[in-house]
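This entry is retained here.
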Amino acid sequence: MTKKLVLEESAGFDQKVIEYVHRASATGLYEIRGMGAKRHLPSFDDLVFLAGSASRYPLEGYREKCTTTTVLGTRFAKKPIELAIPITIAGMSFGALSGRVKEALGRAATEMGTSTTTGDGGMTPEERQSSKTLVYQCLPSRYGFNPDDLRKADAIELVIGQGAKPGGGGMLLGQKVTKRVAGMRTLPIGVDQRSACRHPDWTGPDDLAIKVAELREITDWEKPIYIKVGATRTFNDVKLAVHAGADVIVVDGMQGGTAATQTVFIEHIGIPTLAALRQAVDALEDMNMRGKVQLIVSGGIRTGADVAKALAMGADAVAIGQGILLSLGCNSSSYLHEGAHIDATADYNALGTAPGYCHHCQTGKCPVGVTTQDEELELRLEPLTGAKRVKNYLKTLNMELTTVARACGKSNVHHLEREDLVALTLEAAAMARIPLAGTDWIPGVSRF
């Protein structure tokens, strides 16, 4: 009689951990990859809305308006930004993305009446020309930083940290440092670029206030000044950013994406967007600055429901990165060429992955031409086609947002509030400080 083979996987040392140990032992190197955290985290999926019923009057979707206009930078800037929708495109660099992609993002944002953002490495002519409203990032690396480009922008975003890698600098591996990228960043061609983890000319909150004042002076107090933080010590970070004089705070949760960083950063540093958003709102309310300083939240925003929940929890707008890349065709099995779909599966296989599972942005060999500087691969992304796809995505998100708002009886999406939400899990209830569904209990706040 044949003995039955019984296989029992270790909880602490499962196949994923065993593979990690074997790889680390064989190479002596940590893994660098793109995209965002893959582990399960409490998210907006753990919240649901309480829509209109007998006790709340819903609005008719086809006859009654729901306003989405969003104004950012009302605290000090002479020229605040007015957007048609509360959904913006997050900062992603030229270098991580191709020039054709940057053009597509600018076109889509302009058509939807929203903003897009530069990223590390400076401003390209493609994105300035195609973007009606462009936010210029000032990062620790200062790669490509140009005062003339700064003045051309519509807002300035001073980046302290990024959700996927708070406390760590950016990476752009040598295979993506082409002649043009190297020229903009003053780097050798083909050499790995590692950005600094902190700004070179200030070390604390008082210095930050001086830096904000410098940016205001160089832009004649016209442009809104954003301060972006990766979600870690969010409550205190937001307070310090307000103290430094920010018009807008951007909080990026750990579900945010990256072009390339250590996996240990992506999976083990920072806090979920859900918890960070609640702490940011608490900080603004504690300083009586809610509504005076606008709040943008990013990090894993995917759907119109996510947008609606973020606004209900207290955000004024959201910024999206990974979702935008996916709308361009990231992780698609094919790309468009002259109207025909061309199968890219073999190119994914060559990277050791498959459509739907790719996180190989750092290689510069993107099968669909999104995260690449390769002259042939980048042609796989047609700017007009990409712009149309991103516009459709943003349009869908905005329609879902207004549908939810009307169902909750709101004629303005900014009237969504925490009272409209309940949580489905204890973790989400505690992090967001939203009552557990069917109760008025908030773990850690009220008694059951």
About this structure: The radius of gyration is 22 Å. The CA atoms of residues 168 and 442 lie 34 Å apart. The chain has one domain: 44-416.
